[in-house]
Amino acid sequence: MSTPDPEPLWSSAADTYARIRDNIGKVMRGQSQAVRKLLAAFAAGGHVLLEDVPGTGKTTLAKALARSIDADFQRIQFTPDLLPADILGVSLFNQREQVFEFHQGPVFTNILLADEINRASPRTQSALLEAMGEGQVSLDGVRRPLDSLFFVIATQNPIEFQGTYPLPEAQMDRFALRFSLGYVAASEEVQILDDQSARHPLDGLEAVSDHDDIERLRDAVRAIAIADELKRYVVDLIVATRETDGVLIGASPRASLAVMKCAQALALFDGGEFVTPEHVQEIAGPVIAHRLVMDPQARYSGHDAESVVSKVLDQVPVPT
């Protein structure tokens, strides 16, 4: 039996990506690289942590993605008094029927915005671990699957420390990417003022794809070829982080998988049929840096996780 030609799948998926990218671009001015990273994680089946100052458009980005793909959207404002049941749901006793009925929490959605996730206690943060890692929620001895489109966009403010709880290593490792939006150029900020002079552009944003399009997009990402030499290159980068001075805990095998899958997504976005070293290098920082636990003395000496990633990218030989 002949193997189906993957070319139509790649072409259709690349078109889906372009439609979503351009649609989000109507709302997110000057953030093309952030949108590219977000969609790479989404197409690869990962989750994203946005670490940035207030007012840069994190919530708008999440809503724009949800509207562009006609997906359900839920937002949770994380606070110190938030409980796991507020996220996952709770079973309540029905007096009339004499049975417990499960009431779903906001985690049962497509796009979940976990706003200021580090303001909740570690116990509440951990409520998302199973959902993000396995696509399911286990409560009262029952496993409840989440939608295949389930995607977490979490945010945290990097400059406020009072009333916050650092995300534990296990939680950080669940995020495929961590990156910031940053401030846009002055000309783009003027355009934002023009866009919102009458109403918010989100109000008129319409869907340009659906659930089936996203499933085909993810199938196409998995079909992108990656040579054995590049797989070894990815692993060598990850192993190098574990052997670098100043790093207490290096990146995990989950990081290797995230680099590979996100690089496949970038290759698809660029119209390619295979991953190149440039795709790996482009995504390495956002995938790896937040997973590294630095020695306190190294941090005091000015070394951080981002500089470690840059160092290993410089030192690890690139396959030719």
**Helix and strand sequence:** HHEHEHEEEHHEEEHEHHHEHHEHH
CATH architecture grouping of the largest domain: 3-Layer(aba) Sandwich
Note the overall shape. globular
Major β-sheet strand ordering: 2-5-8-1-9
Name of the CATH superfamily of the largest domain:
P-loop containing nucleotide triphosphate hydrolases
| Proportion of residues in helical segments | 40-55%
Quick one: how many beta strands?
Answer: 11
Task: Report the CATH C-level class of the largest domain.
Answer: Alpha Beta
Count of domains: 2
Separate helix tally: 14
The CATH topology name of the largest domain reads: Rossmann fold
The secondary structure category is alpha/beta
Distance between the termini: 34 Å
Strand residue percentage: 15-25%
Calculate the mean pLDDT score and round it. Answer: 90
Measured on Cα atoms, how large is the radius of gyration?
20 Å
Largest sheet: 5 strands, parallel
The low-confidence parts are: none
Description:
This protein is of the alpha/beta class. The chain folds into two domains: 171 residues, P-loop containing nucleotide triphosphate hydrolases (Rossmann fold), CATH 3.40.50; 97 residues, Orthogonal Bundle (Helicase, Ruva Protein, domain 3). Helices cover 45% and strands 15% of the residues. It contains 14 helices and eleven strands. Strand 6 and strand 7 form a beta hairpin. Helix 1 packs across helix 2 and helix 11 packs across helix 12. The protein is globular and about 70 Å long. The model has no long low-confidence stretch (mean pLDDT 90).
